[in-house]
Amino acid sequence: MDGPLDREINEQIRAMMETDPAAAAEKIRQCLEETDNIQLNIAITGEPGTGKSTFVNAFRGIHNNDEGAAPTGCENMTTNPTSYHHPDYTKVIIWDLPGIGSTMWPADKYVERVELEKFDFFIILSADRFRENDVKLVKEIQKMEKKFYFVCSKVNHNLRDEEQSQMDFTEEKTLKTIYEDRVKGLEELGLKSPQVFLLLSPDVSLQGLKELKSTFEEDLPELKKHALCLTMIIIYKQVLNNKKENFLAKIKYYCIISATGAILPVPLLSAGVDLSLICLAFRWYLVGFGLDTSSLNKLAATTGISCNDEITNLKFKNKLLKSSLISKALIHVANTFVMASKKEGVVSMSRILVAPILSFTTTYVALNVFVTEFAEKSHRIFKRALGLNT
After folding, report:
1. Phi/psi of residue 341, nearest 5 degrees
2. In b/e form, how buried is each residue of 303-333, taking b as 16+ CB within 10 angstroms?
3. pTM score > 0.85 for this model?
4. Among 58-72, 320-334, 373-387, which is the least confidently predicted range?
5. Cα separation of 237 and 235, whole Å?
6. Which residues are CB-contacts of 166 (< 8 A; sequence separation ≥ 6)?
7. How far apart, in Å, are the Cα atoms of 5 and each of 21, 41, 83, 214, 386?
8. pLDDT for the residue numbered 380
9. 66: CB partners within 8 A, 6+ apart
10. Contact, 45 vs 137, CB < 8 A?
11. Closest C-alpha among 373, 356, 355 to residue 248
């Protein structure tokens, strides 16, 4: 499945993220201005028998028996994700997914097996009440920070049942009740103003579908932009994780130097070595994760966001400084213990065993904290630079 942008452009942006996040953000901003070049992969999902394949055809403006239509009917159940181009919208791909909860696609394995994270936007079809599998899909989509429409298909069945059971039946009242019930179910899951559509049946001529298509056409540019931003954030997270792993892998070398300094019986040598190591690594990590002043100013100038409150505020600096001070304090305690031991006639082996271990451990902990916090901070800032909530 192709992503929102061509593979070549993706690789260009990834390379920029490695060395110049501000340039990557600028390139992404340029891509966002050309929505016709952004691909949107829409997943049509829901339980079996909700009319997904028929909806795919109707959404594309064709009938079930037209050439190129998605197969429909009980004998043509969708068994694998199948793609269809939308004839009216540039780079919009419709994916007819297997039904969640079927024998072949059980609910507990559905998300992983269907690779739900690869899709950019979702249309969930439900033929009846708000069900457990609908809730599962909504929660997974929320977790991925993606958007969706909730479509009640085959509402004509609900109308027929209500007409037979109610003395004062009116179609308008029943449709309103069904709509409010679906909206309430989604709001209880934490969604604000969920987009719900009612279809008597997914037929190309029905007004409910006309309303959905009109809304989709208005939303399409923003949906494409949102899909692109989320994809870029995923790529940036991968870049950060690679940097993080590289930095973490090299921490042991700093720690070995720290431990060696603790062995030598030179006053204040250990504390001086550790402080120098921590300051050197601190600066290296800042530059590596694009959190140094120069990189942040460039990102702010490119995207218009303010980075001061995120990085250069006193609270954040003090937190990092305290980590360094704690490390120094523990090393000082180790040295004091050794000196006291010597006064009491304890063999100098105490220095060889205790001080290096404490020095190694405290340096290791401090540098791990820096790497982890810097990676998370860089991710949040870049996410905000693309206009996504953090």
Report:
1. -65, -40
2. bebebeebbeeeeeeeebeebbeebbebbee
3. no
4. 320-334
5. 5
6. 174
7. 18, 12, 17, 25, 16
8. 92
9. 57
10. yes
11. 373
Burial of residue 388, with CB atoms counted within 10 A of its CB: 0-12 exposed, 13-18 middle, 19 or more buried: middle
Rounded CA-CA distance 113/103 in Å is 13
* Rounded Cα distance, 4 and 324, in Å: 43
Contact 208, 123 (CB under 8 A): no
Q: Is 225 exposed, middle or buried, given 0-12, 13-18 or 19+ CB atoms closer than 10 A?
A: buried
- What percentage of the chain reaches a pLDDT higher than 90? 44
Both tokens of residue 297?
Answer: 């100013």
Q: What SS3 class is residue 101? A: coil
Q: What mean pLDDT is predicted for residues 95-119? A: 93
pLDDT per residue as tens digits for the range 4-43: 989 999 999 999 999 999 999 999 999 999 999 999 999 9
- Strands ordered across the beta sheet of 82-85: 82-85, 92-96, 40-46, 121-126, 147-152, 196-198
Which whole-number Å values give the CA distances from 128 to 87, 147, 153, 171, 255, in the listed order? 30, 22, 8, 16, 62
What confidence tens digit (pLDDT) does each residue in 256-313 have?
Answer: 887 776 666 555 555 666 777 777 888 899 899 998 888 988 998 988 888 776 655 5
245 Cβ neighbours under 8 A, 6+ residues apart: none
Which of 314, 294, 316, 323 is closest to 380 using CA atoms?
316
Give 264's Cβ-side CA count (13 Å radius). 12
Q: What is the mean pLDDT of the chain?
A: 83
Structure tokens at 221: 């540019």
Residue where the block lists tokens 């008597």:
200
Find all residues with CB under 8 Å of 24, minimum gap 6, and list them: 13, 16, 17, 232, 236
Residue 387's φ and ψ, nearest 5 degrees, are 85, 15
pLDDT digits (tens, 9 = 90+) for 211-267: 999 999 999 999 999 999 999 999 999 999 999 999 999 998 888 887 776 666 555
Q: For residue 205, is pLDDT > 70?
A: no
Residue 78, pLDDT score:
75
Give the E-state strand segments of 3-114 in sequence order. 40-46, 82-85, 92-96
